[in-house]
C-alpha cells in the first residue's frame, strides 16, 4: 500500500478553512513546499525522519488559525460595480432599440436572444479558472486562426471577397489570441520574438482580410500594448521605441490602403450622410429634415437612420439625429466612463497573465469605441458598433464574452498566478 | 532570548520588507534568514509568515513569482517600488519609536546626548 503523505492531514485542516475552492491549490502548494523544506533541513541536521516530520508540522502553527487567516485574504473579488454598470448600459441599448426601431417584424426576438446569449457567455467566462487557461494559453491563437479560416472558406461570410460581414467581429478576439501566444511562448529570447512575429503576421493578415480598417486598428494597437507589457519595465528602451514606430508605420499603411478601398466602396456617401445628419440634429429630439445632394436618388437622413446599418455602426449619428446630439454625447460619455472603470481594473493587475488578459479585453473595447466615434464624425467610414449600446447580435455576444474574461481576471484577484515560462509551454 | 509576541507582531511587516530589500526570497528562506540575522531571537512560524506575506502582496508592497530553484518550483517574493517606500516610512517610524523608548528607559537622556 502506498504510504500516505505525512503533510496531508495538516493541509486538509487548512483546506477546510479556505472556502474558495479555487484558492485552495494555490495556497496549499506553498505550505506543502514549506513543510518539505523544513523537514529536509531537520533531516540534514541528523534528525530521524518521523521526528523531522513531526517537528516540521509543529513549526507551521495551528492549521485552523492559519486556514482562517488565509481564508480572509483569498476570497473572490467580483467587480459588482462594473457588472451593474454593464447591465444598465446593455439594458439602455435594448430599450433604445425597442422604442426607436422595433416594428414588430419576424426577427424582433433576435436582439433579446443575442442579449441572453451574451449574458450567458459573460457569466460562463466569468466563472472560468484563468489559471487553468494560462496552462493552455497556446491554444488560443490556433483556435481563432482556424475559426477565421473556416469563415473565409465559406461564401456565406464573404462580402466582396473579404470577411467584412460577421467575420470582422472575430478581429475583436484577435488580441486575446495574441495574448495567449505572448504568454505561452515567453522566456525563450530570440525564438520567442520570432514566434511572436509569426503569430502577429498571421493574425494581422486575417484582420486585414476583413477589409475593415477598424479591425486592423483593434489588433495592431492591442498587440503593440501587449508587446510593451512583455518587455521588462525600465529596460530595452530601443525595443519600446521600435515597437511604437512599427505600430505607427503599420497603421499609416493600413490607413492608406483602406482609405482607397473606402472611397471605391462608398464614394463618400456615408461620410456625407453622417455629416448631414449631425448638421440637422438638435440638442434634444428629432433633427430637421434634409436631402443629400449629388446623388441620383432621393433619401433623407431620416430614412437612412431607420436602416439596421445605422443602428449598428452609426449608432451615435442615428442617436444624434433621432434623439438629439446631447443624448448621443451623454450615451457616449456613459460608455467612456464604463471603459475607464474597466481600464482602472486592468491597470491594477499584478501578474503578467492578468495584465495580458485585461489588455486583450480593454484595448479592443477602447479602440472599438474610438473607431465608432471616428466613423460617426466622418473621419473614417469602416466602423464598429458602440460597445453595449449599438444594435447588433454577433458583436454583442463577442463583447459579452470579452467582458466575462475581464470579470474573471478581476474576480481571481490574489490567486491569479503566472506559470513559469518553460512549464507554461510544456504542459 | 525569546521576546514578548506583542512586541514582535507590529514589526513583522517591517522585518520581512527589510529581508526582501537584499534580494528575492521564498518563504522558508525568509524564516531562516530572519532567525540567522537575529541570532534566533525572531523565529517566525510558517503559519504566521504566509498570511503576512499574502497580505503584503495584496497591499502591493511585494509581488510574487514562481521560479525553479534546486530542481523545485518555488514561490519567490520581491519588493515593489511601493514596498520600498513603505519600508522607508516604517523604518523612520520604528527609529523614532525606538529612540523614544530608549529615552524613557534612560531617564530622559538619549545615548550620545549631553
Q: How does this model look, in words?
A:
- The complex is a heterodimer of chains A (427) and B (114).
- With 427 residues, chain A is mostly helical.
- Chain A has one domain.
- Helix content of chain A is 69%, strand content 0%.
- The radius of gyration of chain A is 26 Å and the shape is elongated.
- Chain B is of the alpha+beta class and 114 residues long.
- Chain B has a single domain, classed as Orthogonal Bundle (Arc Repressor Mutant, subunit A), CATH 1.10.10.
- Chain B contains 5 helices and 3 strands, in the order H-H-E-H-H-E-E-H.
- Chain B has a 3-stranded antiparallel beta sheet with strand order 1-3-2.
- In chain B, helix 2 crosses helix 5.
- Chain B starts with a helix and ends in a 9-residue tail after the last helix.
Brief descriptors of the model:
heterodimer, A: 427 residues, mainly alpha, 20 helices, disordered C terminus, B: alpha+beta, Arc Repressor Mutant, subunit A, 3-stranded antiparallel β-sheet, 3 strands, 57% helix
Please summarize what this structure is.
The complex is a heterodimer of chains A (427) and B (114). Chain A has 427 residues and is mainly alpha-helical.
Please give the largest β-sheet of chain B.
3 strands, antiparallel
Q: Give the topology string of chain A: H per helix, E per strand.
A: HHHHHHHHHHHHHHHHHHHH
The total beta strand count of chain B reads 3
Looking at the overall shape, the CATH architecture of chain B is Orthogonal Bundle
Instruction: Output the strand order for the largest sheet of chain B.
Output: 1-3-2
Overall 3D geometry of chain B?
Answer: globular
Low-confidence stretches of chain A: 423-427
Range of strand content of chain B: 15-25%
